[in-house]
User: Fold this.
Amino acid sequence: MHRRVFLAAVGGGIGAGLAGCTAIADRTEGHDVGMSAHAFLPDSHTIEAGETVVWENTGSRAHTITAYDGGQPEGADYFATGGFESEAEATEAWHADRAGSIYTGDRFEHTFEVPGTHQYYCIPHERGGMVGRIVVEE
Assistant:
């Protein structure tokens, strides 16, 4: 009799755990690039000119999406969470009061018009390797 109670409890726990896996999969739909603790997922994404990329913070830490000033094709619009006009402005604002941070579940999007490779990073996690690129094809 005790064995059945134990098996029922274990079976219910496994079912609840698997239900969480489904919820995570549903939460990550609708974006192009996600974020873990120290990585963009994927770290490279290819699109056609004129398409919009949607990033979503799927991790538990605050992140930024910050374009490298020298890492954009000539004529490309600068992009960064917080709406900053340059890498220096974004970096200074983040260090001053964490401006430009996006938190779990927050999204950022940018439309890429200029073909080429657009390189970006997360200010607080760049040293850990959190860098990415968007490859825009004609």
In short: The mean pLDDT is 85. Residues 1-30 form one domain. The two ends are 68 Å apart (CA to CA).
